[in-house]
Design a protein that fits this description.
Shape: globular
Number of strands: 14
CATH superfamily of the largest domain: Glycoside hydrolase/deacetylase
Distance between the termini: 40 Å
Strand content: 15-25%
Largest sheet: 6 strands, parallel
Helix content: 25-40%
Oligomer: single chain
CATH architecture of the largest domain: Alpha-Beta Barrel
Order of helices and strands: HHEEEHEHEHEHEEEEHHHEHEHEEH
CATH topology of the largest domain: TIM Barrel
Radius of gyration: 21 Å
Structural class: alpha/beta
Number of helices: 12
C-alpha cells in the first residue's frame, strides 16, 4: 500500500482535483464541538457548558434542520440537501461526550458524529494540552526558571517573582484566543503549546515527562479530563443517534509525517474503533484540522483505506470540491443560546 502511494503521487493525487469548485444548491453548516463541560480552567476554549449546549440544540431543533454527517454527501448528490441543514460533530473523544452531550442530543433528537483519537483509550493519560494546563495552572508556585532542549534547540523561561495564578483573569477563563497573556505563567503555556503542537508522539512524551518532573506532579488522567473507555464508546454509539469516526491514534499533525506514518495513524485508529464497535468506520477528522495540518498525501491515504468523508477545522461554505476530504466546519465556543442563534442565522443569510 505504501509503495503505491509513494510510487506515483501525481497520478493518485490528480483524482482529488476533478470537481469544479461550486457552492451547493442548498446551504449546510457543519459545527465542531469538543467538550460539554464546565471547568475552572479551559485555555484551549474547548468547553461548552451543558446549559448552553442545551440552548444550542433547542435552536437547531426549532430553526434549522439537524442532519447526520453520513447523510450529507448522499443528500447533495441527490439534490435533496435540506434547507438550513446543520450537522453536529465532536472531536477527540472526551468522556463528557457520553455523560453530558449524549443525553441532551437524545432529548432534542439531534444526531451527531464523535471523532475519537484512540491513543489514550485504556490509558491513564490526558491530551497534552490538558496536561499542560494541569501542570502550569494547578495550585502552587512554579519553579523560578525552566530550561528544556527539544529537537536540539534549548528553550529557556524565567518565572522568578511570578505570583501564583490559576487559569482565570478577573474571574474570566483565560484562553489562548485572547490577545494578551496576563502573567508569565500564561505566556509560558502559550509558547509551550505552540512548540508541543508540532512534535511527534515520542518527543512530545519526553517533553511532558520533563515538565511533570519540573513541577513535581504525577502524570495521571483527572476524572474531569479523561477520554472514553471501550465500553463507554460502545455506550455512546448504542441507539444509533451518535456515529463514531476516526481521529488518528496520537492526535499529531499529519502533514508533518511521512505517508507511512500517516497510514499508520489513520488505519490503526480506524481498526481500533472497528474492533470496539464491531462495525465499519467510514468518517474521519483531521487533528487540529487547519489547512496546513493535512496535505494531499493525507487525502490519498484516506482514499486508499476506504474512508468516505473527512472533516477539517476551518470556516467556509460547503462546496462541491469539499467532498470528500475537505469538509469545512465552524468551531463552536461557549456561547449563550441567543448568540449561537444569531451567529448561525447570520451565516446562512451571508452565504
Amino acid at each position: 500500500m505504501i509503495a503505491r502511494l509513494l510510487a506515483s503521487p501525481r497520478g493518485i493525487l490528480s483524482r482529488f482535483r476533478r470537481f469544479r469548485s461550486r457552492p451547493l444548491g442548498s446551504k449546510a453548516l457543519i459545527l465542531l464541538y469538543h467538550r460539554v463541560a464546565e471547568l475552572p480552567s479551559d485555555p484551549q476554549w474547548l468547553c461548552v457548558t451543558p446549559q448552553q449546549f442545551a440552548e444550542h440544540l433547542d435552536s437547531i431543533r426549532r430553526h434549522f434542520y439537524p442532519l447526520r454527517l453520513s447523510e450529507l454527501q448522499a443528500r447533495f448528490e441527490e439534490h435533496k440537501l435540506p434547507r438550513k441543514a446543520v450537522v453536529i460533530t465532536f472531536d477527540d473523544g472526551y468522556s463528557d461526550n457520553l455523560y453530558q452531550a449524549k443525553p441532551l442530543l437524545e432529548k432534542y433528537e439531534v444526531p451527531a458524529t464523535v471523532f475519537i483519537a484512540t491513543g489514550n483509550i485504556g490509558k491513564s493519560r490526558e491530551f497534552w494540552w490538558d496536561e499542560l494546563d494541569y501542570l502550569l495552572f494547578s495550585d502552587g508556585a512554579l519553579p523560578e526558571s525552566l530550561e528544556i532542549t527539544i529537537n536540539g534547540k534549548t528553550h529557556r523561561w524565567t518565572l522568578k517573582d511570578e505570583v501564583d495564578s490559576l487559569g482565570r483573569v478577573d474571574g474570566v477563563r483565560w484562553t489562548v484566543a485572547m490577545d494578551f497573556s496576563p502573567t508569565r505563567r500564561h505566556q509560558l503555556y502559550r509558547e509551550l503549546a505552540a512548540i508541543i503542537r508540532d512534535l511527534d508522539e515520542s518527543t512530545r512524551e519526553s517533553v511532558m515527562e520533563h515538565l511533570a518532573g519540573w513541577v513535581n506532579k504525577p502524570r495521571a488522567a483527572r476524572v474531569t479530563h479523561r477520554t472514553m473507555s471501550p465500553c463507554e464508546i460502545q455506550e455512546l454509539a448504542a441507539g444509533g443517534l451518535v456515529d463514531v469516526g476516526g481521529h488518528t491514534v496520537t492526535h499529531s499533525v499529519l502533514s508533518l509525517q511521512s505517508a507511512a506514518e500517516q497510514l499508520k495513524e489513520i488505519a490503526e485508529s480506524r481498526a481500533t474503533l472497528e474492533d470496539i464497535l464491531s462495525r465499519r468506520i467510514d468518517t474521519f477528522s483531521y487533528p487540529f484540522g487547519g489547512r496546513g495540518d493535512y496535505n494531499e498525501t493525507t487525502k490519498a491515504v484516506l482514499r486508499e483505506v476506504g474512508l468516505s468523508l473527512a472533516c477539517a477545522n476551518f470556516e467556509g461554505p460547503l462546496l462541491s470540491s469539499s467532498f470528500p476530504y475537505d469538509l469545512p466546519r465552524f468551531i463552536v465556543r461557549d456561547w449563550g443560546g441567543e448568540e449561537f442563534l444569531e451567529r448561525l442565522t447570520a451565516w446562512f443569510k451571508g452565504q
